[in-house]
């Protein structure tokens, strides 16, 4: 008689599951922008093409209910990870073909939907396999593991691409063009292999995940649930001001996200700082992301101590005002790596410190109600839409304005963030200090 194995410890699959999610997401939506830039694409198209890959993650609430209708959540996680691993390997192969860019964009666009499905299914495994106490216990590990993904992708892989380009393939780091194909093919083969290894690991240790109570049993029922979720969302008091907040809070960051790395690697003659990929990976993808993690930790403690309503505008200032560091660097174009690193760390630290207010606001003010998970996903989708829109136009604006004038524009773009934050409604009591579920509605 076969004996069923006890479930594996969450420590065996929570860290690797969320790391794998983040690795694919950052490779698709951030690292591709650097790759396009290296391959000789202008800032406008490089920012546009990589930003378009955010679309699937923005609209994933629309197809999330249907993922749970068939098989298990683990099945979808494994299928997604195998497809992502093979897809990245396919990117490496496609780059050897003439006219490869059309193939690349087709594969990337398909992988973005597969990646969004992986996110939905992985979150589902986490929520349905762990009770509320375990979810709270592993929440920090979950967040830390996800944030290791950007460090590996934006830091490690970008650094390695520069190292391969110059020291292995013997090309000039300052020249953008087809010579970069060799290095980036290796990177995509490597990331594809890592993702396939994670799929094999999760096949062994990840639980199946239970079906949620409101899982639809048919496409028609799923559509009705989605419709009801959107109807109830727009019936909430102050919903349009909440949506404005969700879209505008990180508006200036959306304009800065793609252009910041371009500014770092563009030559001094074009107004940039002339950094290599290796230095970009170290400064922007490692020290910068470490500063985000530290800022997020301290920002969370600050909100827990003072309360969100009392601190939200301060958090908005923290997100937006330090963007001025890029304006200063564009004006003076420092060559000192310590000054450049300090500028990036300051901006990233305060972004991490202030950005926690956005997520807490969505949890406590937008999400509460019958469809809290769907409404929270809608809020993060609106944030993603902001990143998509700003990313698509940012490169073209920068080319038109030049770096100094563009970073002045970024500072002007902070004004809508301040207005939306000032008028953001608070209709629910805040969660008690130390965490907890969103509070009850406050009487009008």
TrEMBL record:
A GO-annotated cellular component: membrane
SUPFAM superfamilies for the chain: MFS general substrate transporter
Superkingdom of source: Bacteria
One of the record's GO molecular function terms: transmembrane transporter activity
Subcellular location: Membrane
UniProt keyword annotation of Transport present: yes
Transmembrane segments: 12-34, 46-63, 75-94, 100-116, 137-163, 183-201, 239-259, 279-303, 338-363, 375-397, 403-424
Keyword tags: Membrane, Transmembrane, Transmembrane helix, Transport
InterPro entries, alphabetized: AmpG_permease/AT-1, MFS, MFS_dom, MFS_trans_sf
Span of domain Major facilitator superfamily (MFS) profile: 10-428
One Pfam family, short name: MFS_1
Topology relative to the membrane: Multi-pass membrane protein
Protein known as: MFS transporter, PAT family, beta-lactamase induction signal transducer AmpG
Source organism phylogeny: Bacteria, Pseudomonadati, Pseudomonadota, Betaproteobacteria, Burkholderiales
């Amino acid at each position: 008689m076969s004996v069923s194995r006890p479930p594996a410890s969450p420590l065996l699959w929570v860290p690797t599951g969320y790391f794998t999610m983040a690795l694919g997401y950052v490779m698709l939506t951030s690292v591709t922008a650097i790759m396009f830039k290296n391959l000789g694409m202008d800032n406008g198209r490089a920012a546009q093409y990589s930003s378009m890959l955010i679309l699937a993650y923005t609209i994933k609430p629309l197809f999330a209910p249907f993922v749970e209708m068939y098989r298990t959540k683990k099945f979808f996680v494994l299928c997604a990870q195998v497809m992502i691993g093979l897809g990245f390997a396919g990117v490496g192969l496609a780059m050897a073909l003439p006219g490869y860019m059309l193939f690349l964009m087709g594969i990337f666009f398909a992988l973005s939907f597969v990646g969004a499905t992986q996110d939905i299914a992985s979150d589902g495994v986490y929520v349905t396999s762990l009770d509320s106490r375990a979810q709270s216990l592993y929440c920090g590990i979950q967040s830390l593991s996800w944030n290791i993904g950007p460090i590996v992708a934006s830091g490690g892989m970008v650094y390695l691409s520069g190292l391969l380009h110059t020291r292995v393939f013997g090309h000039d780091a300052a020249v953008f063009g087809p010579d970069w194909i060799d290095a980036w093919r290796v990177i995509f083969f490597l990331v594809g292999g890592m993702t396939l290894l994670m799929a094999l690991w999760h096949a062994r240790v990840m639980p199946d995940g239970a079906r949620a109570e409101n899982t639809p049993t048919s496409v028609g029922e799923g559509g009705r649930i989605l419709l009801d979720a959107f109807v109830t969302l727009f019936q909430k008091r102050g919903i349009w001001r909440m949506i404005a907040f969700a879209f505008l809070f990180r508006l200036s960051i959306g304009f800065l996200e793609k252009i910041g790395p371009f500014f770092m690697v563009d030559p001094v003659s074009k107004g940039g700082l002339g950094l290599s990929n290796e230095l970009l990976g170290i400064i922007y993808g490692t020290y910068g992301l470490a500063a985000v993690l530290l800022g997020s930790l301290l920002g969370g403690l600050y909100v827990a101590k003072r309360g969100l309503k009392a601190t939200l505008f301060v958090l908005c200032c923290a997100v937006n005002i330090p963007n001025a560091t890029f304006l200063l660097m564009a004006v003076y174009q420092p060559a000192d790596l310590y000054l450049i690193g300090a500028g990036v760390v300051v901006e990233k630290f305060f972004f991490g410190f202030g950005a926690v207010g956005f997520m807490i606001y969505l949890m406590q003010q937008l999400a509460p109600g019958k469809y809290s998970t769907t409404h929270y996903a809608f809020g993060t989708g609106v944030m993603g839409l902001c990143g998509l829109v700003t990313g698509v136009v940012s490169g073209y604006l920068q080319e038109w304005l030049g770096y100094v004038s563009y970073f002045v524009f970024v500072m002007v773009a902070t004004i809508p963030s301040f207005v939306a934050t000032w008028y953001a409604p608070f209709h629910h009591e805040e969660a008690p200090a130390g965490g907890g579920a969103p509070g009850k509605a406050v009487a009008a």
